[in-house]
Amino acid sequence: MQSFTSITTLLLLSFLQVILAGPISFVPELVQLGTRQTTTTVSCAEYSMDSNYTVIGTNSTYRAAFIQASPAGTDPTTSILDTATKKFMDANMMMDKALNAECGNLSALAMKEAPVNFTNGIVGPFTIKKASAGTRVGSGLGSVVVVATMVGAALWL
Question: What is the DSSP letter of 40?
Fold first, then answer.
């Protein structure tokens, strides 16, 4: 019993010493926060490329032609478009007054020139591939299936 009393007394005295030694602050010290938003410097070349890829990536016709014309395959090609579009939107390049003053409004230029390039058979850095002369609409196994289905339906009736 005496050891229990000794331990209790020792703990009580330790506790009192801590309390009397100085005020204990349970409020954490406030840290001065700095600016967390950092402005990234975008070059005019990056702005131009990201603008063009964003126009291509957000238009289904241009996007399909870009993917079809790219020799890299679907996944790497869509990654190029998606990454550029995200970067363009996150940096808000279209509305960045300083960037547009330095480089000109390259996003407006990209939107204006994309249809012109597409009409000329160009999408981004690629030339749009034309269908080969031997390809006919309605040829192949798909037509056979359609005709067979129609004949089967006519015989069923």
Answer: P
Contact 127, 69 (CB under 8 A): yes
The secondary element (H helix, E strand) that includes residue 127 is strand 126-127
Tens digits of pLDDT across the chain (157 residues): 566 676 777 666 565 565 666 555 555 565 565 555 545 578 999 999 999 999 999 999 999 999 999 999 889 999 999 999 999 999 899 899 999 999 999 999 999 999 999 999 999 999 987 765 554 544 444 444 454 455 445 455 4
Q: What is the dihedral of CA 92, 98, 104, 106, to 10 degrees?
A: -10
Three-class SS of residue 153?
helix
Stated pTM of the model: 0.58
Task: For residues 90 and 59, give the distance between their C-alpha atoms in angstroms, rounded to a whole number.
Answer: 19
Domain boundaries, the chain: 44-127
Write down the number of H helices and E strands in the chain: 7, 2
Q: Is 59 exposed, middle or buried (0-12, 13-18, 19+ CB in 10 A)?
A: middle
